[in-house]
Design goal:
The protein is of the alpha/beta class. The protein has 11 helices and 22 strands. Bound molecules: flavin-adenine dinucleotide (FAD).
């Protein structure tokens, strides 16, 4: 233990999640003598309680939705609540097993290979420009703070138990009714999973999926309503033993808060915004310090695994003398709900709306293309099996392609991915008057 406080490190990283691991990788690769300090769980939110288990469970539970949707429905009898519960709990068990394997493979085993990185399992604080473990100061030339976040709870009176993305994975029984508070990406993902097994009501205060235009989020809203998910626009006032009390009345069920995140910044003496997110400049440096960086969910800029990983790399590059900034508009984000909705870029300029039902491979949904100065600057897609499309859009936006250039590229037929080309083509042709075989 003493060696950690005697060594003069080039870099100390606090937090071994997506951001901290990315910084550790790049620091190790560049030969920086590094100390990574973190409390459990190693790997942080994404692998343990975030992206990985939620997508695993979404994929696993999709079968229930497929059976319900397809013509095969009549071949299957309706499952009883007890049968759905047994299935839910067995899927949860498989999810936990998968998380364990991935945590070992992608984090614990990888850490052993970082020859320039020491690891200390501990809780750290930051004051007077240094990192401390208890009252012991770590000697380091540079610091990366990457302690992530926890679930944010609205400031209302809460009596009794409730769910968040933290304790959801430890459920021992399937609630007969779930009330999801919030209308974020996370809310629609959990609503999708749970609605495949049980009754779900979403209670939201203001706009639904506010990262999207009302016309875009309306699509998800309508599809949810068609699938029997209830949507109530109301302000939560109180939680009282399995009831959410709003100005419009009481709603019964297990309450799950999907109301955003709150940064793990309590033990850091740095400048923060009113929600506690650490304030940084465009180079990710903490306000007032030249050698201290805050990355990932801790700075609250765009709380995604991809952001944390990119910022972790950029912070190390800046420590090594670069002056790099992160372009958050180039980072795609997806709600992996059913239907999915995803965006990348900015929603400015001319809007070209394309209806996915016009594709040969008929699908329900839309693709919105935003064109400014003859460049595609933003793409929003909503529909079923459309998530991969946002990666194509990401290439187009990063390469700053025009609708004309995209129209010239041959895409495989018949696919849903053609939507982006068809939308581009529609800037030059009336697609209602063209054969589907125009290239
Ligand atoms: C349900 C859910 C689904 C998600 N799905 C997606 C998705 O599909 N795609 C996507 O891109 N993103 C997704 N995210 C977001 C993504 O998980 C986070 O943005 C990302 O994990 C943040 O990484 P981080 O490194 O900033 O923090 P974390 O991964 O939270 O890591 C922080 C680490 O710091 C440690 N720590 C905390 N305080 C201290 C301290 N004082 N001292 C030492 N160590 C400390 C913690 O124990 C933890 O190990 C999802 C999140 C949730 C909750």
């Amino acid at each position: 233990m003493e060696k950690y406080f005697e060594t003069n490190y080039d870099l100390v990283i606090v937090g071994a999640g997506s951001g901290g691991f990315s910084s550790s990788y790049w620091a190790n690769k560049n030969g920086l003598k590094t100390l990574l300090i973190s409390s459990k769980p190693i790997g942080g939110t994404c692998v343990n309680i975030g992206c990985v288990p939620s997508k695993f469970l979404l994929d696993k539970s999709k079968i229930l939705e497929e059976i319900n949707k397809s013509n095969l429905k009549n071949l299957f009898r309706e499952l009883s609540f007890e049968e759905r519960e047994a299935l839910f709990l067995s899927f949860l068990k498989e999810t936990k097993q998968y998380v364990k394997e991935l945590q070992k493979r992608n984090y614990l085993d990888v850490l052993k290979k970082f020859e320039n990185v020491d690891f200390l399992e501990a809780k750290a604080s930051f004051k007077d420009g240094s990192v401390f473990v208890e009252d012991k100061r770590v000697k380091a030339k540079n610091i990366v703070l990457a302690t992530g976040a926890k679930p944010f709870l609205p400031p209302i009176e809460i009596e009794g138990e409730f769910l968040t993305y933290r304790n959801f994975w430890d459920l021992k029984e399937l609630p007969e009714k779930v009330v999801i508070v919030g209308s974020s990406v996370m809310a629609v993902e959990f609503a999708t999973i749970l609605s495949r097994f049980t009754e779900v009501t979403i209670v939201f205060r203001s706009s639904f999926l506010k990262k999207f235009l009302p016309s875009q989020s309306e699509f998800v809203k309508n599809e949810f309503l068609n699938r029997g998910i209830k949507l109530v626009k109301a302000t939560p006032k109180k939680v009282s033993e399995g009831k959410l009390i709003t100005e419009k009345g009481e709603i019964e069920g297990a309450i799950m808060f999907c109301t955003g995140i709150s940064p793990n910044s309590e033990s850091f003496e740095v400048e923060k915004d009113k929600r506690g997110f650490v304030i940084t400049d465009e180079f990710l440096r903490v306000k007032g310090f030249n050698n201290v960086y805050a990355i990932g969910d801790l700075n609250g800029k765009l709380p995604l695994e991809t952001t944390a990983a990119l910022e972790g790399k950029v912070a190390v590059e800046n420590i090594l003398g670069a002056n790099k900034k992160v372009d958050y508009n180039k980072i795609p984000s997806i709600a992996f709900s059913s239907p999915q909705i995803a965006r990348v870029g900015i929603m400015e300029g001319r809007l070209i709306h394309f209806d996915l039902s016009k594709l040969e491979r008929k699908s329900k949904g839309f693709l919105d293309l935003f064109v400014k100065n003859n460049k595609i600057v933003g793409v929003v897609v909503g529909g079923y099996n459309v998530e991969e499309l946002i990666n194509t859009a990401s290439f187009i936006i990063n390469l700053e392609l025009s609708p004309g250039r995209v129209s010239e590229i041959t895409l495989a037929f018949p696919t849903i991915g053609e939507a982006i080309k068809k939308a581009s083509l529609s800037t030059f042709h009336n697609l209602d008057e063209t054969p589907c075989c125009i290239n």
